[in-house]
Design brief:
Blueprint: E1 4-7, H1 12-22, H2 29-35, H3 39-47, E2 53-54, E3 60-61, H4 62-68, E4 75-81, H5 83-90, E5 102-109, E6 112-117, H6 120-124, H7 130-150
Antiparallel strand pairs: 1-6, 2-4, 3-4, 4-5, 5-6
Length: about 160
């Protein structure tokens, strides 16, 4: 499967700032409720989350990791999604959790700044759960729309 690639109209640092502004860090309030055994409170906190969250802060800095092995390049990896959406999909088949949250790579390739990710719908289609397929297509559209906006494209494009 080929990843979806969106070329940015901005520099690497401008694209990174726009991406991090567009996708908020994951609010971990639900974990406090879970630790207390308050599942209703956890569910309410999960329902309050936006559809796309950044699961890891700081994101994985591949630029520094490449430098650590004597290579150069600019790349940052994000894990983006929503835990309630992920578990709602995975309730049908726990192996679906292998594909959520989504990994998104911001990188420089030659003189181009690119955002790459694998579409979710083809990854979960093998589970043959219509409800999951529908959610996956909506998530792919939402993530693509958000990343295109981050890269400097109009939503109408």
């Amino acid at each position: 499967m080929e990843p979806i690639t969106i070329s940015s109209n901005y520099s690497f640092s401008e694209t990174q700032k726009a991406l991090e502004a567009a996708i908020p860090p994951l609010d971990l309030t639900y974990q406090t409720y879970l630790a207390q055994g308050d599942y209703a409170g956890a569910h309410e906190a999960l329902e309050a989350l936006p559809p796309l969250n950044n699961f890891i802060l700081p994101p994985r800095n591949f630029t520094d990791l490449l430098l650590a092995i004597g290579k150069s390049g600019q790349a940052v990896q994000y894990e983006i999604g929503n835990p309630l959406t992920a578990v709602t999909m995975a309730q049908h088949n726990l192996d679906i959790a292998l594909h959520t949250p989504r990994r998104v790579l911001l990188r420089v390739d030659g003189d181009k700044v690119e955002i790459k990710f694998n579409a979710l719908a083809p990854l979960v289609a093998k589970f043959q759960v219509p409800e999951v397929d529908t959610v996956a297509r909506k998530l792919d559209a939402k993530l693509t729309e958000t990343l295109r906006r981050v890269a400097g494209y109009d939503e109408s494009r």
